[in-house]
Amino acid sequence: MKLNIVMISPGPVLTLKEEYCKLLSREFNVRHLSTCYINSGLNRKKIGTYSTYFSFYKTKISTLCKLWFVFYCIIQSVLWRIKKEKINLVSAYDPLKTGLTAVICARITRAPCVTEVNGVYNKVVEIEKTVNPLKTVKKLSVPAVQKFVLKRSAGIKVLFPDQIKDLKIDTTNKIVRMFPNYVNINKFLECSDKHEKKQVLFAGFPFWIKGVDILISAYRLIAEKYNEWELKILGYYPDKSLFDKYIGNTKNISVHSAVMPSEMPIQMQQCAIFVLPSRTDALARVLIES
């Protein structure tokens, strides 16, 4: 008999990986709680025994949407409890917002909670350049929230050894396992170098954590000597003023909006060099893909 699991991820989900959903459907009945854009058509979608329960997300009111998502997850959990639907496991994508939500939902459904640790969250807060009261609050709250969630998790998934060592959590009675996130490289293996350009490609965000400032500064040192080469930057950057500051009058540096995962093989096969100057990264999937 298949186990009934609830997966909670932050979103907004842009697309569903059908192969991934089908693989999970072999062993589990999955109820995926997340957010999506109104016109995405992803809410209440079913692939095999993989079902989505997404609340709607709008960028202009993102804070309200995130708060509603927490209540949405709790409401769904209460409904499953009322209907006496058995939940065997509640899984959280991270030990922060989704982790707190998962702990609550696990209590409601009387199921154990498993939390994924997909980043080095304390390091991310330290790297942020902004100096304001909010950063001080985040610096204090991020470790505290992680400890709270992980202490109440029956299982913890990490990406590398000692990832949660600095949190000093007693894991004696917990199941802790280390394995990388799923990365489908089939489409990348089909790529050829026929369309390769003299292009250096970077894909990712946010700006400081991914070391985009370091990348641009390094490129500027060689730009004049290798003027036939282009630096292409892909990512979600609403504030372009940072680029103006670092790029200056250097030519052959272009900034583009983030692309869908399905478009990344095309981007990869066009570049001759892929770079990732991150200040911190738990598992850089783009390196595996490149």
**What name goes with the CATH superfamily of the largest domain?**
Glycogen Phosphorylase B
First-last Cα distance: 39 Å
Given the structure, what is the number of helices?
10
The total strand number stands at 12
The helix fraction, in percent, is: 25-40%
Rounded mean pLDDT is: 87
Shape summary = globular
How does CATH name the architecture of the largest domain? 3-Layer(aba) Sandwich
Spatial sequence of strands, sheet with the most strands = 3-4-2-1-5-6-7-8
Indicate the radius of gyration in whole angstroms: 21 Å
Taking the sheet with the most strands, its summary is:
8 strands, mixed
User: What percent of residues are in strands?
Assistant: 15-25%
Give the SSE order as H and E letters: EHEEEHEHEHHEEHEHEHEHEH
Quaternary state of the chains? single chain
From the helix content, strand content and strand pairing, which structural class follows?
alpha/beta
What do you see in this structure?
With 290 residues, the protein is an alpha/beta fold. The chain has two domains: 3-178, Rossmann fold, CATH 3.40.50.2000; 186-289, Glycogen Phosphorylase B (Rossmann fold), CATH 3.40.50.2000. The protein has helices spanning 18-27, 62-82, 97-109, 121-127, 133-151, 186-189, 212-222, 241-247, 264-270, 285-289, and strands at residues 3-8, 28-37, 46-47, 50-57, 89-92, 113-116, 155-158, 175-178, 199-203, 230-234, 253-256, 273-274. It has an eight-stranded mixed β-sheet with strand order 3-4-2-1-5-6-7-8, with helices on both faces. The chain has a four-stranded parallel β-sheet with strand order 11-10-9-12, covered by helices on one side. Helix 7 (212-222) links the parallel strand 9 (199-203) and strand 10 (230-234). The longest helix has 21 residues, at 62-82. The mean pLDDT is 87.
